[in-house]
Amino acid sequence: MLRKSAVLGVSLWCCVALFSSSPLFAMSMGGGGAFHEEMYAASRGDARAQFRLGVRYSSGRGVPRDDAEAVRWYREAAGQGYAKAQYNLALMYYDGLGVAQDDAEAAIWCRKAAEQGDDRAQYTLGRMHYKGRGVPQDDAKAVQWFAKSARRGNADAQFNLGWMYANGRGVAKNDAEAVKWYRKAAEQGDVEAQLHLGKMYAEGQGVEKNDAEATRWFEKAAQGGAVK
What is the 3 state secondary structure string of 183-200? Predict the structure, then answer.
């Protein structure tokens, strides 16, 4: 079935992990002097600094965690068109963190980020269309957004796009296309995609039946913690 594991709050923390690898981000999470410099830049309208403050307050790194303050700074940066802030603001609305839970508002901000090419926002908007949260349920639009995200290399979107093709949801059923997208996700280490790809080889769906390849992908999935 379509991946359920994209708990949107978790996506926000992934954003924090992404930025933590940056020397600039690491510096900004440091002492009080760095914080005050960041706050000064943010108060003068620097969207990147505003976003970093939002991340800081979301994660509680260097300051007490404060979701309302995170929302405040994400909103400031999002209003200037900063895609990462738009996406994180969408997640805050989706999960009701620091603001009243509001699927429609989440969809508005998610779309703004998605239209700027943010692959996580594109994937999330696809999920929202598939589930009918904040937007009308629409499998075809879900496919469109999964495809945009998948082409940018998002493994979750690649898996979901493969699933949509395999099940004929929002697009004509096409096992060969399902295999194509399962493979892309599987090659990135996605365990669910590895399992599905192994099954396609085992049953000869969308690809020539090949027990050895099926076993190879099942073993990769097992190594990743999957239970066949």
Answer: HHHHCCCCHHHHHHHHHH
